Amino acid sequence: MAVNDKKFLIIDSRPYGLFSIFLHTIDNIKWAHDNNYVPVVRWGPGRRDPNHGRAGAAQASQMANPSYVTDRTNFVTDETPGSWNNTPGLKHCQCLYWDEKGWRGSLNPWEYYFEPLNEYTVENAENSEHDVADIFMVGEFDFDLENKFLIANLHSYEPLALWQLLERESEAELPHEEKYEFKHRAAVAEVISNNVVVKPEIVEKIDNFYNKNFSGNVLGVHVRGTDKKLEYPHKALPISAYIEAIEEYLQKQPDSKIYVASDNNEAIIQIFKRFGPQKVFVTNATRMQNYLSADPICLTPSTGPKHGEEVLIECMLLSKTNHLICTDSNVAASALYINPHITTTYLNRKHGK
């Protein structure tokens, strides 16, 4: 079939953290395959309203009236938006990891970290007569598509279905791989493994760290701080909640090592002080100093391609642990989706937050 005879789905990014846009991309990849579209990923300078111009968009997203949505930055005006230009006024819409000089030979941040999805390019899709950009066909306002793969709300990608499924009381007595949570995670893992290939130079860094530090049972801990304190309804828990969960796990697995991934140094320092450098290990990464810093790294001048790689490495290493202590972070969610066999201590459930 000629390129012009194909239907393309161009998957753009929005100004959120790496694994927020990663999970959104996975959702759209699945939609594309389910609906006979060819997906291509075009993370970059940014676009305002990814639903603009799609048949049924007004019904599906209420885009015609910004007062209906909570995420106003995606609905800047009712005028026809630009779709691939970092024009004045759109700075806040660009991919937070984009660099105008590019990285690893590409101007597309997806290709900073991952291989292209297939043999087709963004240019193929843009020049096709049958292309559509970033249609959010998953979510509570999609009246026609029954499958809601990852997200329930098409405006903010939240809540992830995962957070509603982890550690449900109704499944507490079931073996892990008999839980619906596992089946859901395994379905997402299949889409990821069939479509996403991490760049080999990043895989090499992950493997080197893994081979040097991982042995026996490894507990993963992901501490999401900084602006998490502002999120509703799941605000940041105190660092002590993570330490208590680690202590409980070590009562059952006293020889376990502890791999900690975090957006801040304060949490890492406290965990090191409590459990010691013989047990705890971390990767080198740029982090905020304080647990409750105003912004995460990706919203500061320290963001960029390198920071995205650091977060990706942390997530991939978390996915190689035996058990994960976490709150509702997209980094933790992605690790749990990449490896559905990991068991969890989901602190939001544990603390009713």
From TrEMBL:
Alpha-(1,6)-fucosyltransferase N- and catalytic domain segment(s): 98-329
GO MF, one example: alpha-(1->6)-fucosyltransferase activity
Matching Pfam families: FUT8_N_cat
An annotated GO BP: protein N-linked glycosylation
Coiled-coil regions, chain positions: none
Family annotation (Gene3D superfamilies): 3.40.50.11350
Membrane-crossing residue ranges in chain numbering: none
Top-rank lineage group of the source organism: Bacteria
Protein known as: Alpha-(1,6)-fucosyltransferase N- and catalytic domain-containing protein
Organism this protein belongs to: Xanthomarina gelatinilytica
Lineage: Bacteria, Pseudomonadati, Bacteroidota, Flavobacteriia, Flavobacteriales
